[in-house]
Amino acid sequence: MSGNVWIAGGGVICGIGDNLAACLEAFEKMQPGMGTMQHLHSVHAPTFPVAEVKADNTTLAARAGMPEHWSRTALLSMIAAREAWDSTGLQALSKYRAGLVSANTVGGMDKTEGFMEAFLENNTKGRLRDVVHHECGSVTELVADALGIRHHVSTISTACSSAANALMYGARMIRNGLLDVVIAGGTDSLTRFTLNGFNTLMILDQQPCRPFDDTRTGLNLGEGAGYVVLVSDEAAKDIQPWCRLSGFANANDAYHQTASSPEGIGNYKAMKGALDMSGLQPADIGYINLHGTGTQNNDSSEGLAIERLFAPVFPPMSSTKSFTGHTLGASGGIEAVFAAYGLKEGIIYPNARFTTQMKEVPFAPAVAFSRGNAFRHVMSNSFGFGGNCSSLVFSK
Amino acid sequence: MKAYIQGTGCVSPQDSSVFPATIREYEGSRMLVADPDYRQWIDVKQIRRMGRVIKMGVAASHISLQDAGVAMPDAIIMGTAYGCLADTGVFLNKLVTQKEDMLTPTAFIQSTHNTVGGQIALLLGCHAYNNTFVHGAFSVEHALLDSLMFLGEDPSRKVLTGAVDEITDYSHTILSRFGLYKHTKNTGLLQSRTTGTIAGEGSAFFVLGAEKDAQSKAELTAVEMLYKPASAEEVRTHLEAFLKRHGDVDLLITGRNGDVKDDAVYGTIEDALFPQHPVAAFKHLCGEYPTASAFAIWLGTLALQNREMPAAAMFKGASPANLKKILIWNHQHTTHHSFILLTAC
Question: Does B329 have pLDDT greater than 50?
Answer without folding.
Answer: yes
